Amino acid sequence: MANRPPVSLPKLSRRSRILLIIAAVIILALLLGARLLDTYVNWLWFGEVGAREVFSTVVLTRIVLFFAIGIFIGGTLALSLWIAYRTRPVFVPVSGADDPLSRYRSAVVGRIRLFGIGIPLITGLIAAATGQGDWQRVQLFLHGTSFGQTDPEFGNDIGFYAFTLPFYQWLLGWLFVATTVSFIAALIAHYLFGGIRLAGRGGQLAGPARVQLAVTAGIFVLLKAVDYFFDRYNLLFSTRNSLFDGATYTDLNAVLPAKLILLCISAICAVAFFVGAFLRNIQLPAIALVLLILSGVLVGAAWPAILEQFSVKPNANQKEALSISRNMAATKDAFGLNNVQYEDYSGTGQASAAQISADSTTVPNIRLLDPNVLAPTFTQRVGRENFYGFPAKLDIDRYTVDGKTQDYIVAAREINTANLTGNQTNWINKHMVYTHGNGFVAAQANTIDRAVSSANSDGGYPIAATSDTQNPTGAGLNPANPSQPGIEVQQPRIYYGELTNDYAIVGGQAGKAPGEYDSATDGDYRYDGAGGVPIDNWFNRLAFAAKYGERNILFSDAISDGSKIMYNRDPRERVQKVAPWLTVDGDPYPAVVDGKIQWIVDGYTTLNNYPYSQSTQLGEATEDSLSGVARQANNNINYIRNSVKATVDAFDGTVTLYSVDDKDPVLKAWESVFPGIVKPSSAISPDLRAHFRYPEDLFKVQRELLARYHVSDPQEFYTTNTFWNVPQDPTQEGGTNLDASGLANQPGYYVLAETPGQTGTTFQLTSSLTALQRQYLAAWMSVSSDPSDYGTIRVLRLPTTAAGNSQVDGPVQVQNKFQSDSRFAQERTLFSNQSVTVIFGNLITLPLEGGFLYVEPVYIQQRNQNSYPQLARVLVSYGSKVGFASTLGDALKQVFGDGANQQATSPTQPSTPTTSTSPPASTTTTPPTTVPPAGSNSAMDKAVADIQAALSQLRAAQQSGDFTAQGQALAALDTASREFEAAQSAPAATTTTSAPPPGG
Questions:
Q1: What 3-state class would DSSP assign to 541?
Q2: Sequence-ordered list of residues with C-beta below 8 angstroms from that of 824, at least 6 positions apart, any chain
Q3: pLDDT tops 60 at residue 802
Q4: Is residue 806 scored above 80 in pLDDT?
Q5: What is the dihedral angle through the alpha carbons of 798, 803, 807, 813, rounded to the nearest 10 degrees?
Q6: What is the pLDDT of residues 713-762, one digit of tens each?
Q7: CA-based end-to-end distance of the chain
Q8: 3-class DSSP state for residue 177?
């Protein structure tokens, strides 16, 4: 046989090689430059928050994994190619005149180093880039701890499934990848070099090719045997039965034995491949392969299917009882549902007016203000300048003011650069002048200023006070004494918040830095806190100019010694970066702790491999009708703990993590990975602990599961007839339509109330639960947020045999009853007005005197861009009775009779109709052009005179273009407005209609 001479390939000139090298360097720089820049910027940021050990640990782990996986995959591929090349036939016969492989063979031989090194290198890089993202799995394996509990089938500690098994399976996966890539590479190489020929009858297989391919296939089958061994443990996460997760009867009695049988067959087949490789007999491996496939079909698939169909399904309630009981126990443990306090509750109590008037815990604290509705109202009434704003959803927290604890609607008045307009949007103003918010705003959740009598009435607004640089004591919360201190804030400036999604450059030298806007009287403030990354050196300026694509950062003279740049300013994002192993709650909230505004962020440790526990889609379970909250990714979890509470200082951005579940094994593992990053629970101050809320996302997940896992008997669980449902939110569009699909769940509501079994008010998160596929009430659950019994879940369970009149209406039925009430229909001038939008607020359910009291505020909003919601009516339901009035007290009287309104909060001022077509704006945002009329009160007369003088001063300043004078005039107008409000609320004052003061 003749050998075809190798075809000579053209050589590259020196100039061509240099150009190729330059092109490669440029491409590499483009690919790596952005990554290196991001790494440096992140390194600076982690240094700012004091968590550089987190950054270094993550990066180092990723680098080690990158090289380890790259070297392993690339090395095994290179070894396979090297063996194939070294054992190629010495003489390669030419199959014909037009041998299609000869030119490719020649090309490879001519550049054997390029192909022999380049292919493994590229493959290794791809594998390394894929595998380095699994750093968490590796770190948990290295630092895993014991749960102190074992699974009921194999007796392994839960920590084996949480930390060890995932790593073994990950490692096994990469071994499969390496073996598969090596086999394919050897197959191609032997075919290219003539070790495998397809010509002739049946083709030809050279001895070296047969040995290498058979050994590689044997290794693959041996790995499959190991895989069958670990697959036994995966049965504890089986989803074979749609009712529950975990090993079913079929899994335990058919699939589990099948795994052991297939393990043995795989080991035998692997030996057959090894023996066949050296005996030069390919029949033995072929027979073994057929045996493996056939046994996999018969033993691994057919037998379990037969057992399931003909034995299990006809007797499922009995056959699956053991598995269901295991699933119930594991799910309750994994989701913290072990210690739920159940109490039977009739729900059909008949309270009298005397009982309602004697209630001093629940009725006085009934919340009328809906934080999901009032953001526009806060923006217009206390937002002041156009560049301040509030999140779409406000928050609820409790504070003790003047010795009285009650819940408040709270929000941080943040900078909102999206609202900048005109010259405010230039680079200096946007990033160096309008840098921060100012003030913590609070309003009593159960109080409004005046009742609304008609669509054009001025009233129905929260009485909000702002604790800012001009009013640090928060005076104004008490209308009877406006000068009384409220919630005192020592540092009200807000540089970090939910609306701050852009970078800010702060600090710097006087005379160079433009000065930051701080208030109407101070536009030359300079940041002096610890937050931010220094940007007063040229290297950092160059880095951030490249990062944001902004040349002004590099060339602006306003950036000087002491200048800092703030970025990653969202509290949720900051916590997520400092603790990448946490799942962060979607609703951070501001709280005043020890005189500082702190964002409190809840963090969860989660797993998806807790044996027998029910798997839950986190995104679906936490989805509801609330807007303005971050939605969770729809990750699959079957274990969750609220193990960490994080705080983010609104002024300097300091991130602090606190352990609130020191026994959580997952948290312990991460504390071993990042020692010192989480402070112990003993470090939590009493003031901070007093503002902890039970987190909403955890509550929604537990509520979803509690609807099924309140059942304790496996037989009852299998029938599902006593399951509950989370009701749809009836206040949303189409929420009362029982046939509508895709409607969001009703959210949980924070309330300050007393539940049965308690001896006082508790700040708690509550929700109704209805019967399965029915709308009547089946249960009511609450979780305490008070430090004394934080996290205690209480469930009021209604009788399951209730029928007819003994059934208690659920939220949808109550909403239908509200809207069909004759008094609601009669208010056509208010609710059928084409210029008015009706907004239904949160429908709160409260247990009261053996029954359930439903309360829902109804808001109206004029149809123009300057209007905002105002509370117009209050709907109340108890039993079969409905109350509908402009105040809570009057609605309670309609339901319970005279005297029932004694404990209900009343508007602080008498109702006063007005002829205006839209609610009045804040005096600071839009100064009034007319002065309120003077009354007989001397203090009011003085305040009116001061307002007149301030208005005259403001007009003169506006005409002259003097911004300093404008700021002074606005400050004087603000002070005069506060004095007028104080005089108006005094007992001797005459009631007049006026624009609300900026502070509330």
A1: helix
A2: 818, 831, 875, 884
A3: no
A4: no
A5: 130
A6: 999 999 999 999 999 999 998 888 877 777 899 999 999 999 988 888 99
A7: 101
A8: helix
**Distance between CA atoms of 836 and 859, rounded to whole angstroms?**
10
* 3-state SS string for 275-336: HHHHCCCCHHHHHHHHHHHHHHHHHHHHHHHHHHHHHHHHHHHHHCHHHHHHHHHHHHHHCC
Q: Return the residue matching tokens 């300048």.
A: 385
Name all contacts of 2-6 with Cβ < 8 Å and 24+ positions apart.
2/94, 3/91, 3/92, 3/93, 3/94, 4/94, 4/99, 4/102, 6/106, 6/109, 6/110
Token pair of 262 as six digits: 């297939």
Q: How far apart are CA 941 and CA 944, in angstroms?
A: 5
Please give the Cα distance from 724 to 736 (Å, whole number). 19
For residues 234-255, average pLDDT: 96
Choose among 641, 634, 637: nearest CA to 620.
634
The answer to whether 282 and 204 are in contact (CB under 8 A) is no
Per-residue pLDDT band for 481 (boundaries 50, 70, 90) equals confident
What pTM was computed for the model? 0.87
Tokens of 6: 């190798």
Residue 451 has pLDDT above 60, yes or no: yes
Q: What angle do CA 27, 33, 35 make, to 5 degrees?
A: 120
Q: Which amino acid is at 657?
A: L
Look-up of token digits 């309104």: 901
Long-range (24+ apart) CB contacts under 8 A made by 420-426 are 420/386, 420/387, 421/386, 424/387
Q: What is the tens place of the pLDDT at every residue in 99-146?
A: 666 667 777 777 788 888 889 999 999 999 999 999 999 999 999 999
Task: Tell me the CA distances in angstroms from 699 to 706, 754, 767, one per residue in order.
Answer: 10, 19, 9
Give, in order, the Cα–Cα distances in Å from 419 to each of 129, 289, 383, 924, 954: 41, 69, 12, 17, 24
Tokens representing 709 are 């896992």
- Cα distances (Å, whole numbers) of residue 3 to 9, 197, 264: 18, 15, 48
Strand extents, DSSP E, 819-869:
836-840, 844-848, 851-862
Among residues 686, 491, 468, 466, which one has the least CA distance to residue 596?
A: 491
